[in-house]
Amino acid sequence: xxxxxxxxxxxxxxxxxxxxxxxxxxxxxxxxxxxxxxxxxxxxxxxxxxxxxxxxxxxxxxxxxxxxxxxxxxxxxxxxxxxxxxxxxxxxxxxxxxxxxxxxxxxxxxxxxxxxxxxxxxxxxxxxxxxxxxxxxxxxxxxxxxxxxxxxxxxxxxxxxxxxxxxxxxxxxx
Length: 174
Fold this sequence. Notes:
Layout: H1 7-26, E1 64-65, E2 68-71, E3 77-78, E4 81-84, E5 88-94, E6 103-104, H2 124-134, E7 144-149, E8 153-158, E9 168-173
Parallel strand pairs: 1-4, 2-5, 4-9
Antiparallel strand pairs: 2-3, 5-7, 6-8, 8-9
Subcellular location: Membrane
Organism: Halorubellus litoreus
Pfam families: Copper-bind
């Protein structure tokens, strides 16, 4: 017969379980899988562990030529790096079960480019404030957001509620 755990043992087990669950939810994978495994693998690039540092400019990894990006349940944009021709409309589809945003980093888009964010905001701060105050800019499960890229260059964007989880993407317009 199994003894009941003491209160101290129970609290310790609960703390360990919580820590494991939180770590699983918040860890950005530092190595990605290639294609077809359903988790939004981004073509095998490395170093996407949630860093938003300036050395992660999107230039050193594989670019996928597509105009559709999935926002996944595993808190990723898939593919992470896309390349499109000038004038292309990109569609972000929420294939996950929770809401996401598409929010440009204001200082990570070409100088002459227009700012973009789901919700139609004209600045990064307005997009963050809108999401934090009223969930504005949220793209619910099954819905999508579109933006037409008119200016050549590289654009970096993120999901407001999942940035800390490494949900960051890039668009290169050629």
